[in-house]
Design goal:
This protein is of the alpha+beta class. It has helices at 24-35, 73-76, 81-90, 111-124, 147-157, 205-218, and strands at residues 40-41, 45-48, 51-54, 96-99, 105-110, 131-133, 138-143, 168-170, 175-177, 190-193. The chain is built from six helices and ten strands; from the N terminus they run H-E-E-E-H-H-E-E-H-E-E-H-E-E-E-H. It is globular.
């Protein structure tokens, strides 16, 4: 059964960041070294008058401490562990952002739909990529790049459309927040299905979309 991982243990963990007890810097370096993912530091949380707000200064920031800190963030993203280490040494509390559309795209669905889909995929014996669980109660499934272009057609063949179910695709020019990034006072991004040596090769979105569409349709 798929469960949210609080720690990552076992011989298949390939030294991927733990849910607890690991700094954002260490997590960012390991994503670059072990998964060859590009990473970039985002905003961070700052305390002011006893309240933790986003470093961007917007009191109404929708994702405090978990969005790009500069307009050229995509150009700053890197897979070099040396550069990553230097970036986070300058701002150790910066969020860990993972650009999509490069080594992976991400399919985002509501948490309840995500866990229904995970259970269905497990019964079908599908090999999944990493899956995150966000504090905003979304599950994000990592798949091969190019999913953004494929999903509308795939959904159409299944009798659905992007406007009819709560399913979005993060592709080129977008990002997801990587664990253990915190989003304001809502909590931290976690792994629902952690990165391991078994899921180093990501699935194509075509393999997962039937289960995801079914779960989203049930959850409407």
């Amino acid at each position: 059964m798929f469960i949210v991982e609080e720690t990552i243990a076992g011989t298949d963990a390939v030294q991927i960041p733990k849910q607890r007890g690991e700094s954002l810097l260490d997590a960012a370096v390991r994503y670059a070294e072990e998964r060859h993912w590009d990473v970039v530091p985002g905003t961070w949380l700052e305390a002011a008058d006893g309240v933790r707000g986003c470093s961007c200064g917007d009191a109404a920031c929708p994702v405090p401490g978990a969005h790009p800190a500069r307009p050229d963030w995509a150009a700053q993203a890197t897979g070099s562990a040396t550069v990553v280490r230097r970036m986070w040494q300058q701002q150790p509390t910066a969020s860990v952002l993972l650009p999509t559309g490069r080594t992976f795209d991400a399919i985002s669905v509501p948490e309840t739909s995500g866990f229904l889909a995970l259970a269905r995929m497990e019964r079908m014996g599908l090999t999944l990529g990493p899956v995150t669980l966000t504090p905003d109660r979304r599950t994000e499934f990592f798949v091969l790049p190019g999913a953004a272009a494929k999903v509308p057609g795939l959904l159409c063949r299944l009798g659905w459309s992007l406007s009819s179910i709560d399913l979005t695709v993060r592709g080129e020019g977008e990002f997801v927040a990587g664990p253990p990034t915190r989003v304001g006072c809502r909590g931290a991004v976690q792994w629902a299905c952690r990165p391991t040596s078994a899921n180093r090769w990501l699935p194509d979105v075509e393999e997962l979309i039937p289960s995801l569409a079914y779960a989203c349709g049930r959850d409407r």
